[in-house]
Amino acid sequence: MDRRTCARMLIVLKYGGNAMPDGADDPVLDEIAALARTGMSVVMVHGGGPQIDAALKLHDIPEERIEGLRVTSAAAREVVESVLCGTVNKALVRGLLARGAKAFGFSGQDAAILTVRRMTVPGGDLGYVGEPVAVDATLLHGILGLGLLPVIAPIGLDPATNDGLNMNADTAAGAIAAALQADAYVVLTNVAGVRRDRHDPASVIPRLTIAEAEGFLADGTFADGMRPKMRAAIEAVAGGARRAVIAEAVRDGIVTALGGTGTELVRS
Ligand SMILES: Nc1ncnc2c1ncn2[C@@H]1O[C@H](COP(=O)(O)OP(=O)(O)OP(=O)(O)O)[C@@H](O)[C@H]1O
Ligand SMILES: [Mg+2]
Hints:
Elements: H1 3-8, E1 10-15, H2 27-38, E2 41-46, H3 49-58, E3 65-66, E4 69-70, H4 74-98, E5 103-107, E6 114-118, E7 130-135, H5 137-145, E8 149-153, E9 155-158, E10 163-166, H6 169-179, E11 184-189, E12 207-209, H7 210-218, H8 226-238, E13 244-248, H9 253-258, E14 263-266
Parallel strand pairs: 1-2, 1-11, 2-8, 5-8, 11-13, 12-14
Antiparallel strand pairs: 3-4, 6-7, 9-10, 13-14
The structure holds adenosine-5'-triphosphate and magnesium ion.
Adenosine-5'-triphosphate (ATP) binds next to helix 6 and helix 8.
């Protein structure tokens, strides 16, 4: 991809907590800063699964998931909010600033940029977990227009109760990618793409349509965190993002994903 193509693009990037390294060396942040320098508009939405699990353990709060989604009690929500909006968000902001990108960190609650409602699933009560209702795309475009790089923690505001609700980061990112009509929704995770057989790294599916992805959700090919990830990718593409790519968080992983590594999801 040449510089001129990069400069015109708007991408929404989901960076998985599972893929983030512990130390200061982070090839994903290197690449984001380099892309921002070309003039590409990048909106980053981050996860924090392992970081939250570690903090919950310290607080003796048990962790439970339904359909790959974290069940969030009132006590867990406090921990989730402090880890996502505090520790993880600020570490990413500092990492990007150190690389010359004007990162601006906030959560979906701030300025009510991402409004949500309580999410229900057939398998039980998820507690303080939100699903997207609306995204303030105008405000996000305004932030991008100031030359800032938004780094968004996946907590949304429920206007009915004025609660902050925890969100799966993929779910938040997919809604944002749709609202911004992103040129690409790029999901960086800890696997090199979506697998036909989840235990076989050689079974990565290069290209999927929405209908095929829905089939794989129904037959259980996608499990755990891959389920909300694929649902979010479907929402993004169905809602107006040009395409979604799911790829591994490695050096130059964004540009290579845009060039065809990993799994691409298209409308049809
Ligand atoms: N068919 C599949 N192909 C690939 N991975 C799969 C599949 N089914 C389930 N998975 C699991 O999904 C995981 C990725 O989702 P996960 O939620 O763990 O990471 P993340 O979303 O990048 O991080 P975070 O949730 O912290 O933001 C993979 O590591 C793998 O274990
Ligand atoms: Mg996940």
